[in-house]
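We close this part of the discussion by returning to an individual protein. The encoding preserves chain order, so positions in sequence and tokens coincide. The sequence in question and its structure tokens are set out directly beneath this paragraph:

===
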Amino acid sequence: MSHTSTPWTDHDGTTADRTPEWHEIHASGGRVIATLEQDAYNDKWGEWTPEEVRANAEFIVRACNAHDELLVACKEMETYIEGWLDASQLGAAWHHVKARLQAAIAKAEPQA
């Protein structure tokens, strides 16, 4: 199964007095994908400040929205490095870059 299509957006939820109470991540059609919310029992954000919760929601949205393009770019660069020079001609730095690209690709692709 595939994930909900991007782009995703971050939306603040606030109380009547404009106090931030939650952040929602919405799909392009407006459906809620995830909610990061204040602890209703303790009236706090746990270990995080409201600013950190907002930053986390924004980070999730940026990462998800950039995921597919970054994965394609990594794969293209990996192919470019492989075809660029014979493996014996590649310096240690390029071998390191290739290994990092392969590790990033493995993390980004769905696991079977």
